[in-house]
Amino acid sequence: MRAVLKLAAPLLLLLGVGTLAPEANAGAKPAEQALSELKGGKRRYDVVQNRFFLKEGRFEVAPVAGLIPNNPFASRYIGGIHGAYHFSENLAAEGAFIYSPERGLADLKGLTNTLVAIAEEGSGDVSFQQPVDKAVFGATFAARWSPVYGKINLLGERVANFDFYGTAGLGMLTLAKYYARYDDNVPEGQPTTALTRNETKTVVPVTLGVGLNFFVSSSVAFKLDARNYLYWDSQPQYDPDVPNEEGRIYNNFVATTGVSVFFPKMKPRQFDF
């Protein structure tokens, strides 16, 4: 009897292992599946968790208004429009158009009148002329990169969503070029400055800029934008009898604010857990 039990024990053990093995294998399948997906068997998605605002596949139109604060001789207030198409949440192609109305002597800043008066009254140099360049019209085409998306908690009451972007591109800029000279044939108490139109010139600037979009709804954002229009032109010529053929780099810094409208309607967010 003992011999029979000794022979049967290995067989019973094998049968028990065979019965438990399917259950162990069944329990291992989800883990194996997870490992397979982690190693690349499953498509990986760009993470946009809890993003309030999605831009991919949408157009953006933004009326803007602002000024060119770094022109020391003439005030330049501008209006314009920015347009863009967003290929993804981070990359877009854009076009920007600006216009600044021409107001003649009314555009001149006090520094221009002061320099002209000093040249006449201080040194008696009646040939002195102060170059004054006024940006009138601009158009640029650029790439926009948005590397930062963030949220701000406003006093614990509301969360403001925003993104930060940079732009780089090329364009055109039309300049009205003037000379300001001393003129004593003006009524008493008025600036003794005459403005002579020299030429209208179009240059090709390189544009570099940064901006912020603050999202207020699924279709509207408040925009702050600042960009530099860098171009090469001849140096200022203060004496009409001494021509100057050398050149230098100029910069028109354009600061604007506006409201962006996005269309079509934002698609529902999709999450993959």
Offer a concise description of the structure.
The protein has 273 residues and is of the alpha+beta class. It has helices at residues 2-41, 110-121, and strands spanning 59-67, 77-86, 91-99, 130-154, 158-182, 193-203, 206-215, 220-234, 247-263. An eight-stranded antiparallel barrel has the order 1-2-3-4-5-7-8-9.
Describe this structure in words.
With 273 residues, this protein is an alpha+beta fold. It has 2 domains: 1-41; 59-263, Porin. Helix content is 19%, strand content 48%. An 8-stranded antiparallel barrel has the order 1-2-3-4-5-7-8-9. β4 and β5 form a beta hairpin. The longest helix has 40 residues, at 2-41.
Features:
alpha+beta, Porin, 8-stranded antiparallel barrel, 9 strands, 48% strand
State the end-to-end distance. Answer: 60 Å
Overall 3D shape: elongated
**Unreliably modeled segments:** 11-28
- The number of distinct β-strands equals 9
> What topology, given as strand order, has the largest sheet?
1-2-3-4-5-7-8-9
Structural class: alpha+beta
Mean pLDDT: 83
